[in-house]
Prior knowledge:
By secondary structure, the protein is mainly β. Helices cover 0% and strands 47% of the residues. It has no helices and 10 strands. The chain has strands at residues 3-7, 10-12, 18-25, 34-39, 46-51, 58-60, 68-73, 78-83, 92-97, 110-114. It has a 6-stranded mixed sheet, with no helix packed on it. A hairpin with a 4-residue loop joins strand 7 and strand 8 (78-83). The radius of gyration is 13 Å and the shape is globular. The N and C termini lie far apart (40 Å).
Amino acid sequence: EVQLMESGGGLVQPGGSLRLSCAASGFTFSDYELYWFRQPPGKGLEWVSTISRDGGRAAYADSVKGRFTSSRDNAMNTLYLQMSAIKTEDTAVYSCAADPTGLSRRGQGTQVTVSS
Length: 116
């Protein structure tokens, strides 16, 4: 059974930084591209980032490009999202997924709240 568990969310001030983690189990981690999604309050699910199987390539939504960085440790079955220069509009529940649509094989998410 695919299991994905995010951690590292919390309250952060605008301009601050945060690192999210996603611990995976139940599948061969290094065989999958992985994804970060987010769901702002009252809005739908938004794609944030995709990272290649070996972590050598990543793509980002325009809204986070240059501020967020995805990485992965295939030996530890863990995905990361480094968030920098955080904005109030980054407030959302962030989740990781092994499915490009985010409709399946996605964790429960971790809340990130940006407020001064």
